[in-house]
Amino acid sequence: xxxxxxxxxxxxxxxxxxxxxxxxxxDGCGNCCLHKLEDEDTGAVLRTNVACRLLxxxxxxxxxxxxxxxxVPDCLRLTPRLAAELPWLPVTCAYRLxxxxxxxxxxHYLVCGDREEVHRAKISxxxxxxxxxxxxxxxxxxxxxxxxxFDHDWDETDD
Length: 159
Prior knowledge:
By secondary structure, this protein is of the alpha+beta class. It is built from seven helices and six strands, in the order αββββαααααβαβ. It has helices at 19-24, 68-71, 80-85, 94-99, 109-112, 117-120, 132-135, and strands spanning 34-38, 45-51, 55-56, 61-62, 130-131, 142-143.
């Protein structure tokens, strides 16, 4: 008896996905749970390596996903519209990729079948983030898009 065909829902347009299928697109990288700063003068979004207090830094998963919005009021619920519009979502984000009509990468668990591959591929925040509980000022934790710390001189007298 042949195996039943697998529903590769992740290849369908995001508008056709139900909520469970949309949620299943999350690759578990944790990048959206890192704090960002906005430059007041330019509007540029500056990334940090500082994670929301709910992010488990060993797994890059939310420790209380069900209640996250009650515990962290500014936590966003990503929708297909937001995923296509938010400039700070990383280019590797499965939500962004699918909202843009692009395929999931080979390391995505829906493609490869292994939830740990996102960590081995060094896409996740595992080993690269610090909890907001320990971090101190966010300005001291600005990183490049690939997570590399910048060496900033935050002398406020500079123009």
